[in-house]
Amino acid sequence: MEVTMRMPANDDEGYLIDPAAWSEELAGVLAARENIELTDAHWQAIRFMRDFYQEHQVIPDVRFVTRHLTASIGGSRNLIFELFPYGYVKQACKIAGMRRPRGWSTG
């Protein structure tokens, strides 16, 4: 029997309105909607983004996430885009439970 989780409020593009409503279970649901199977590398990025947001109350720029991934697991500078092929804002921010960043492109 499949259990359906109650989705927190989100905007018309699917971004959470309240980032505090995020959970790792919800990240799995959001990733599945994006056809992404979360790996350890995905979780490294997501947890860094969540921690950065908790500390600074702003969404980390993709450069910070890229530096974190390179330092923690190696790989290319393009790893973030390999993990989230439709873009940092469109997929990584959404799965990590961020509000839609203002003034950023969907890349």
Structure description:
- The chain has 107 residues and is mostly helical.
- The chain has one domain: Arc Repressor Mutant, subunit A.
- Helix content is 49%, strand content 0%.
- The protein contains 5 helices and no strands.
- The longest helix has 17 residues.
Summarize the structure.
This protein has a single domain (19-95), classed as Arc Repressor Mutant, subunit A, CATH 1.10.10.370.
The largest pleated sheet is described as:
none
Compute the number of structural domains: 1
CATH architecture: Orthogonal Bundle
Looking at this structure, what is the CATH superfamily? DsrC protein, C-terminal domain
Low-confidence stretches: none
**What proportion of the residues is helical, as a percent range?**
40-55%
Radius of gyration: 13 Å
The strand count comes to 0
Q: What is the overall shape?
A: globular
Number of helices: 5
What's the end-to-end separation, in Å?
37 Å
CATH topology call? Arc Repressor Mutant, subunit A
Mean pLDDT, to the nearest integer, reads 90
Topology diagram in text:
Blueprint: H1 24-33, H2 40-56, H3 62-73, H4 79-83, H5 88-95
Helix pairs in contact: 2-3
Labels describing this entry:
0% strand; mainly alpha; globular; Arc Repressor Mutant, subunit A; 5 helices; 107 residues
